Amino acid sequence: MFYAIGLGLADEKDITVKGLEIVKRAERVYLEAYTAILLVDKEALEAYYGRSVILADREMVESSSDQILADADKVDVAFLVVGDPFSATTHTDLILRARALSIPIQTLPNASIMTAIGACGLSLYNFGQTVSMVFFTESWKPASYYDRMLENWNLGLHTLVLLDIKVKEPDLQAMARGRIIYEPPRFMTVAQCAAQMIETEEEKKAGVFHADDVLAVGVARAGAADMSIVAGTLTQLAEVDMGRPLHSLVLVGKRMHEMERDFVREFAVDKTVFDEVWKKSYEGHGQ
Fold first, then answer.
1. In b/e form, how buried is each residue of 154-173, taking b as 16+ CB within 10 angstroms?
2. 187 exposed, middle or buried (CB, 10 Å; 0-12, 13-18, 19+)?
3. DSSP characters for 155-170?
4. Which residue of 70, 97, 138, 218 has the smallest Cβ count within 10 Å?
5. Exposed (0-12), middle (13-18) or buried (19+): which is 148, by Cβ within 10 Å?
6. 151 with 256: CB under 8 angstroms?
7. CA–CA separation, 152 vs 158, rounded Å?
């Protein structure tokens, strides 16, 4: 059996009891280690599970899936995913490959950022399409996320923005010289995301992110004991320091309900500014 097991968001203890039982008896245990990370390292998992864990990087999952799925029709193989198994399309693809090989499959869900983001006080019923924000470079500043965000904004819906992480990314200049060198891990912050959103708006001029006239919420380390939440304008969030990863950001939709406002307001950088923006851009749109 091939098991895709959600680990939750924070540490080694977020795994479900059923998932832990499977891990303890599985022939091999893989940890997907590039679409997201836990707030503890692999050694903490191994100590708690009492099992060795094989790190599965992007290359292994996307190009060497046969290695992961080998003999999974005869023995139990556990594939551990931070959050929920279906939070990333990579895992859907792996399930499809297992199906094509007639390997029996079982998935075990767990908490993901898609649900944990509700801790900021915004109703999950009022979220639209989720988008991803990648690190901009001098020559590459993709703005495809903007169109999805604009659709949400026009419907009055909140937009969850998942922030880029770079784990075991090859150095392109070194590759050009025939050498394989990996860059140090990088994790986008709420401040970087807000700044890039402002930069995109300045280029697009479509009226989505007037930096001082829209509200956003930054969430760091969702599900952990030291989770941090900050609310404010994009200009304010572009200056915040929310500490260690992982971070997420929500652009607040125009139909923000008064109950949502009251909850989110407690996290405001400046409650006076928060109230002014609410009255200018949000009041009267909620349902």
1. eebbbbbbbbebebeeeeee
2. middle
3. TT-BEEEEEPEESS-B
4. 138
5. middle
6. no
7. 7
- The more confidently predicted of residues 92 and 214 is 214
Q: DSSP H helical segments within the chain, as ranges?
A: 17-25, 42-49, 58-63, 65-69, 89-100, 113-116, 144-154, 172-176, 190-204, 234-237, 258-265, 271-277
pTM (predicted TM-score): 0.91
First-to-last CA distance in the chain? 47
Q: How many residues would you count in the chain?
A: 287
Whole-number Cα distances in Å, 160 to 74, 78, 128, 157, 284: 40, 29, 8, 10, 23
Contact indicator for 96, 62 with CB cutoff of 8 Å: no
d(CA 72, CA 52): 18
| Mean pLDDT on 3-31 | 96
Residue 182 has what pLDDT? 63
242-246 long-range contacts, CB within 8 A, separation 24+: 242/189, 242/190, 242/191, 242/218, 244/39, 244/220, 245/37, 245/165, 245/187, 245/189, 245/220, 245/221, 246/36, 246/37, 246/39, 246/113, 246/163, 246/165, 246/187, 246/220, 246/221, 246/222
255-285 per-position pLDDT tens digit? 999 999 999 999 999 999 999 999 999 988 7
pLDDT at position 180: 63
Closest by CA position to 15, among listed 35, 1, 40, 28:
40
What is the average pLDDT score of the chain?
92
